[in-house]
Design a protein that fits this description.
The chain is α+β, with helices and mostly antiparallel strands and 274 residues long. Helices cover 37% and strands 22% of the residues. The chain has two domains: 81 residues, OB fold (Dihydrolipoamide Acetyltransferase, E2P); 185 residues, Recombination protein O, C-terminal domain (de novo design (two linked rop proteins)), CATH 1.20.1440.120. It has nine helices and eight strands. The strands form two sheets. It has a five-stranded mixed barrel with strand order 1-2-3-5-4. A three-stranded antiparallel sheet has the order 7-6-8. The structure holds zinc ion.
C-alpha cells in the first residue's frame, strides 16, 4: 500500500460500523474513489473535516491492491465547505443534486481532472448567486459532454439535416431527429439508433422505449452554446421562461434515461416544490 494525497469533493457518505464512515469522493487525480474513514465519528477523533456533502477536502488515502473496491482514508482536511450554499435550500439541493448525479454517472477510478474542475466551477457558479436552475442545467450538459454522452442537438441523428423548423428530441436515440425521419418508421429499431449517434451506446437506458417530443430551436441553440462556452462566460446567460422549462424537461428525460433509479436529491427537490 502507498499513501496518496489528492483534492477531493465528498459525493456521499454513510455510517460504517460504530465510529467510521464509508465515503464516495471525486478526486482531482484519480476520479471517483470509495474509502473507509476509520474512527471519524468517534467523539475523541481528531480529523480536519466532518466530510459534509460536496465539501472540498484534501484527503490522504492508502491505495489498496489493484481491483480492491475500498481504500483506507487516514487523513481529511477541509478546504472549502461552501457555507453560502448551506444557508439556501435551493442552492443546497442543487449542489447535492450535482454530487449525486456525478456519483451515479461516473465509473470508479477513471481519472478526469476536467470533471473535478466542472464540479468546482459549478459550486462557484452557485456561490456567485447566479440562477440555481441554470447552474444545474449547465452542469448536466457539461457532464454529458465530458462523459461522451452529449446528445446530438445540431443535426437529425438519421439523415444529418441541420435542425430547423420542427425537430424532435428522443433520449433513446441520443439526440434529435427531423419530422421526415420520424414518419418513416426509423424510431423503433435500436440497432439504427446505435449507429445514428456513434458516441451513444445502445446498451444504456435499460432497454426502455423512449418516445420523441418536439423541441424548440431556442432550446437546441442553448444546448450547443453551453456545450461550447466556458462556465465563467455563462454566469449571466439569459434564457426565456419557455426555453428554461423545456431545457429542464429535456435534460431530465435524458438524465433519467441514463440512470437506473430516481435520485434522492430530485425527490427532495420535488417535495419542497423546486
Ligand atoms: Zn432526418
Amino acid at each position: 500500500m502507498s499513501a496518496t494525497k489528492s483534492l477531493a469533493f465528498v459525493l456521499h457518505t454513510q455510517d460504517y460500523r460504530d465510529t467510521s464512515l464509508l465515503g464516495d469522493f471525486y478526486t482531482k487525480d484519480f476520479g471517483r474513489i470509495r474509502g473507509i474513514v476509520k474512527g471519524i465519528r468517534d467523539t475523541r477523533a481528531r480529523f480536519g473535516s466532518t466530510l459534509e456533502p460536496f465539501s472540498l477536502n484534501e484527503i490522504l488515502f492508502y491505495r489498496r491492491r489493484r481491483g480492491a473496491e475500498l481504500h483506507l482514508v487516514t487523513q481529511v482536511d477541509l478546504l472549502d465547505l461552501f457555507p453560502v450554499l448551506r444557508d439556501d435550500l435551493e442552492r443546497l439541493a442543487t449542489a447535492s443534486y450535482c454530487s449525486e448525479l456525478l456519483k451515479e454517472l461516473v465509473e470508479n477510478e477513471e481519472s478526469a481532472p476536467e470533471i473535478f474542475e466542472l464540479m468546482h466551477d459549478t459550486l462557484k457558479f452557485l456561490v456567485s448567486g447566479a440562477s440555481a436552475k441554470r447552474a444545474a442545467r449547465i452542469f448536466e450538459v457539461k457532464l454529458f459532454d465530458l462523459l461522451g454522452l452529449m446528445p446530438e442537438v445540431k443535426n437529425c441523428v438519421f439523415c444529418r439535416t441541420e435542425a430547423k423548423g420542427i425537430f424532435y428530441f428522443n433520449a433513446g436515440l441520443g439526440g434529435v431527429h427531423c419530422g421526415d425521419c420520424g414518419s418513416k418508421g426509423k424510431l423503433g429499431a435500436r440497432h439504427v439508433a446505435a449507429s445514428a449517434n456513434p458516441r451513444f451506446s445502445a446498451g444504456q437506458g435499460s432497454g426502455r422505449h423512449e418516445t420523441s417530443a418536439p423541441i424548440s430551436l431556442g432550446t437546441l441553440h442553448f444546448l450547443s452554446h453551453v456545450q461550447r462556452a466556458a462556465i465563467s462566460d455563462l454566469y449571466s446567460v439569459k434564457v426565456s421562461q419557455e426555453v428554461g422549462e423545456e431545457l429542464e424537461k429535456v435534460l431530465r428525460r435524458f438524465t433519467d434515461f441514463h440512470l437506473s433509479h430516481k435520485l434522492n436529491s430530485l425527490t427532495f427537490m420535488e417535495k419542497i416544490g423546486l
